[in-house]
């Protein structure tokens, strides 16, 4: 989860989020190099006293400053397209989770199991025993090291199911079923929130995922049923 004074990404929980962070760092390096180069050229132009009264045109420099930005954009576009296709990839999911957005709470259905469905409301903050505005009464329980498919929709207005550490952000539209998948590679508790302004209590419909081993997950399913 995010902590005070943390301006970086949260620690990744899935391979997709790792790739998103790598792409961010790659693009940021290109931006920094470009900014330094342009700043240096502008400062040189401001403070030098070189004068050439006969310079009317230079096709070579125009060719260079046209080709270089195009090459730079290619270095950004190719990893971006690769990442875009990776985010849409769906590889034999073990479990399908259905998430339904309401004003202002989430409900979940485990489609592969009978009678496993529940509503998830934000809990009241009590003496540091839970996280303020982030904890819920019923957490999503999922097994780690398995491919998870999630189907997302809404019943009233547009919501957005967002868990930053998983690299997942999918809109929940009424009358439409959106799909994505993720792979949790470590145990833990991971927090998210609705990131689409959906009304008065938009800030109060958090998402909590608890990642456990497959053995404990099977025990949880058996006890729930």
From TrEMBL:
It comes from Lethe dura. Component of the cytochrome c oxidase (complex IV, CIV), a multisubunit enzyme composed of a catalytic core of 3 subunits and several supernumerary subunits. The complex exists as a monomer or a dimer and forms supercomplexes (SCs) in the inner mitochondrial membrane with ubiquinol-cytochrome c oxidoreductase (cytochrome b-c1 complex, complex III, CIII). Belongs to the cytochrome c oxidase subunit 2 family. GO terms for molecular function: copper ion binding; cytochrome-c oxidase activity. Binds a copper A center. GO terms for cellular component: mitochondrial inner membrane. GO terms for biological process: ATP synthesis coupled electron transport. The chain crosses the membrane at residues 20-42, 63-87. The keyword Mitochondrion applies. This is Cytochrome c oxidase subunit 2. PANTHER family: CYTOCHROME C OXIDASE SUBUNIT 2, CYTOCHROME C OXIDASE, SUBUNIT II. Component of the cytochrome c oxidase, the last enzyme in the mitochondrial electron transport chain which drives oxidative phosphorylation. The respiratory chain contains 3 multisubunit complexes succinate dehydrogenase (complex II, CII), ubiquinol-cytochrome c oxidoreductase (cytochrome b-c1 complex, complex III, CIII) and cytochrome c oxidase (complex IV, CIV), that cooperate to transfer electrons derived from NADH and succinate to molecular oxygen, creating an electrochemical gradient over the inner membrane that drives transmembrane transport and the ATP synthase. Residues 1-91 form the Cytochrome oxidase subunit II transmembrane region profile domain. SUPFAM superfamilies: Cupredoxins, Cytochrome c oxidase subunit II-like, transmembrane region. It is found in: Mitochondrion inner membrane. It catalyses: 4 Fe(II)-[cytochrome c] + O2 + 8 H(+)(in) = 4 Fe(III)-[cytochrome c] + 2 H2O + 4 H(+)(out).
């Amino acid at each position: 989860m995010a902590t005070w004074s943390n301006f970086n990404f949260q620690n990744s929980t899935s391979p997709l989020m790792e790739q998103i962070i790598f792409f961010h760092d790659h693009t940021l390096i290109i931006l920094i190099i470009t900014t330094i180069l342009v700043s240096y050229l502008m400062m040189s132009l401001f403070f030098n006293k070189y004068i050439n009264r006969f310079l009317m045109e230079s096709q070579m420099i125009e060719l260079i400053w046209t080709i270089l930005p195009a090459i730079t954009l290619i270095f950004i576009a190719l990893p971006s397209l690769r990442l875009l296709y990776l985010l849409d990839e769906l590889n034999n999911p073990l479990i399908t989770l259905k998430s339904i957005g309401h004003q202002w709470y989430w409900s979940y259905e485990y489609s592969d199991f009978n009678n496993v469905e529940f509503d998830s409301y934000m809990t009241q903050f009590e003496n540091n025993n839970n996280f303020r505005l982030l904890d819920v009464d019923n957490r999503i329980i999922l097994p780690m090291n398995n491919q998870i498919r999630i189907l997302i929709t809404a019943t009233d207005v547009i919501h957005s199911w967002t868990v930053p550490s998983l690299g997942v952000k999918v809109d929940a539209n009424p009358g439409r079923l959106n799909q994505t998948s993720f792979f949790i590679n470590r145990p833990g508790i991971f927090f998210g929130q609705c990131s689409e302004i959906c009304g008065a209590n938009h800030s109060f419909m958090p998402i909590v995922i608890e990642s456990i081993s497959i053995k404990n997950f099977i025990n949880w399913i058996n006890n729930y049923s």
